[in-house]
Amino acid sequence: MSNGDGAAEIQNAFDVERADLRTDSEFSYLFAACERLTQFILNQFPRQGIATEAHDSRFLTWTIVMRGIKTFDALLVLADRGYGVQATMLSRTLFEDTVSAWWCSSRPTEELLELMLSHDKSVSLALHRERPGREYFEALAKRQPLEDEHLQRFIDEHGIDARRARALWTGKTIASMVNEIEPHLDEQDVPIMRLLFDVAYLLSNLMVHNSPVSMGTAMRSTSVRSDGVPETTLSRRPSRLFVHDALTIGYLSLSILGRLVTQPTATSELNRILSDSRPLFIVVDGDTVQRTGRNDPCPCGSGRKNKHCHGRHL
Question: Residue 310 and residue 89: Cα distance in Å, rounded?
Fold first, then answer.
C-alpha cells in the first residue's frame, strides 16, 4: 500500500457513513422479530391510559416496561446504524430494568415506596450539594445549592444514607435480584434469564466499561504486511460488530419484561411469538443454512424446517 493509499484509508476510517442494517438480509428478519414483539407488548397497554394511582405497584410495573420499550427502540436505532457496540452498552440498562421490574412485582407496595423515597432523598441530597461548575448541568442549575452544614443537618434529621444515590434504588445487587425472581418466572424464561445474567450482562459490562475488549472495538484492520502481521488503524465508522449480540440481548430481555404486562388472554399468543422468534437469534453460519435443504431441519436445532427458521430469508 502506498503512502497515499494509506492516508486515504485512515481518512475513510474517520469518516461516518450511514448504515442501513434493518434492510440487510443478515439482520432484517431479526429486526422484524424485534418489531413484532414490541408491537405485541404495546398492544397490552390500555388504549385509554393506565387509570391507577402512582402508589399502586402496578403503576410502577407499567412504568418500567414502557421505559424498557423506549430503551429497546433506541437500541434498534443504534443497531440499524451499525453501532452494535453502543447498542450492546444500552442493552445493559434494558436487562437491569427487566430484573428490577420482576423483583418489584413480587414485593409489597409499602416496601417499594419506602425504598423509592429513601433513594430519592439521597439523590436530592447529592444534587443540592454545593460544587464548582454546577451551572453546566440543567439538573443542578435549577436547584438551590446548600452549604455543607445545612446538608449535614438534613442528613441527621431525616436519617439519609448519602451513599444510596450511587446504588440501585432497590438496595439490591442485580445478582441477588436474579436469584430472588427465578422462582416467579415462566418455566421457559428461567434458562433465558440465567443466560442473560451469566453471558449477556458480562458482555454488555465489558462494552460499558473501559476494557481490552471494548478498546479493541475501536480498531479496524486495514492491511497485512509482507511478514503476515495485520496492520490496524483507529476507526469511528459503523460496522456489523456486535449488532447481532445487541439485538439478541435486547430481544431476550424484552421478551421476559413484556410478560409482566401481558393480559392472561394473550399469554398463549406471546408464547407462540417467542417460540417462533427466539430460535432465530441462535447464531448459525450462513453457508450452513444455504447448504441445508428448505424442508430439512434447521441447523440451529429449533426442530422446525429450515424454510420456516433461519432459511426463511434466503
Answer: 26
Residue showing cell 423506549: 70
Arithmetic mean of pLDDT, 13-36: 83
CA distances from 39 to 5, 28, 225, 227, 272 (A): 47, 17, 50, 53, 14
Asked if pLDDT for residue 193 goes beyond 60, the answer is yes
Cell of 266: 394473550
Asked whether 222 and 234 are in contact (CB, 8 A), the reply is: no
230: helix, strand or coil: strand
C-alpha cell at 212: 481490552
Enumerate the β-bridge partners of residue 129.
Answer: 146
Angle (CA) 172-177-180 rounded to 5° is 130
pLDDT-based confidence at 39, cuts 50/70/90? very high
Residues with Cβ < 8 Å from 255, sequence gap 6 or more?
37, 189, 192, 274, 278
- pLDDT digits 0-9 by tens, 88-109: 999 999 999 999 999 999 899 8
Per the listing, cell 452544614 goes with: 149
Quote the CA–CA distance of 179 and 278 in Å, as a whole number: 23
Which residue in 255, 307, 247, 250 sits closest to 283, CA to CA?
247
> Tens of pLDDT along 112-171?
988 998 888 888 777 777 677 777 888 777 777 766 666 677 667 666 776 777 889 999
What region, left, alpha or beta, does residue 82 occupy, with left being phi > 0 and alpha being psi -120 to 50 degrees?
Answer: left
Distance CA 196, CA 181 (A): 14
- pTM equals 0.84
What sign results for the dihedral spanned by CA atoms 54, 59, 65, 66? negative
Q: What is the DSSP letter of 279?
A: G
